[in-house]
Amino acid sequence: SDVGSQKERVVTEEEWLQKWEMGNIGFHKEQGHPLLQKYLDVLLNGRSGLRIFFPLCGKAVEMKWLADMGHSVVGVEVSEQAVKDFFSEHSLPYCEEPVPEISGAKMFQSTSGNISLYCCSIYDLSSLIVGKFDGVWDRGALVAVNPCDRQRYANLMINLVEKNSSYLLVTVSYDPNKHKGPPFYVPESEIKSLFG
After folding, report:
1. 24 a known binding residue?
2. Which residues does the record give as S-adenosyl-L-methionine binding sites (predicted)?
3. Residue 50: what are its φ and ψ, rounded to 5°?
């Protein structure tokens, strides 16, 4: 399971923004992910009213699904279009405000207050800004992060979770020599070394 040519691959923020602008978002799923439904009990662990984090959230439909269950959802996404699309596609009214700690960042919050989406680089976030989370749904974030940034990403995620949190992670398995990514191939051994 050699990571092949992927190790050096870098996808820029501009390239991600362009994918959203061009509608080249094959990674977006219109239906809730079956693995989240299957492992929801693991994420919730018998608890209600959780704070759940969606890294690189896009316009994931699961955010509304979990908010409707009474959880507080926080996401981060670099594309403002994706964030606005999420609210409009679910007919959710929202307000928009700057994030004083992050230059140029905005936070979009549903008027009900249970969905807050930060529009900025994930690496600009910290627990001082967004607090800590009881659960994480990482459906396409780790596999989208540039391989050279994985350790930085994992360190941030570990910093953002409470001690008794649940972290659901979806990865993809394939021959990395046949596909340049993203999604990138992240071997299980690397996941263990990143998250312990």
Report:
1. yes
2. 16-27, 56, 77, 121-122, 139
3. -80, 160
Does the annotation place 65 within a ligand binding site? no
Q: What is the DSSP letter of 184?
A: P
Q: Binding residue per annotation — 129?
A: no
Cα 87 to chain centroid, rounded: 16
Beginning with the edge strand found earlier in the chain, give each strand of the sheet holding 106-110 in spatial order.
Answer: 94-98, 106-110, 115-119, 72-77, 51-54, 133-138, 161-169
The pTM of the whole model exceeds 0.85 = yes
- Report which residue type is found at 15: E
Provide the residue type at 33 as one letter.
H
* pLDDT for 3 beyond 70: no
pLDDT at position 109 over 90: yes
Q: Which domains does the chain have, with CATH numbers?
A: 13-195 (3.40.50.150)
Residue 49 counted as an annotated binding residue: no
Q: Is 139 annotated as a binding residue?
A: yes
Q: Has 22 been labeled as part of a binding site?
A: yes
Is 56 labelled as part of a ligand binding site?
yes
Only one residue has tokens 């269950």, namely: 69
**Does residue 25 have a known ligand-binding role?**
yes
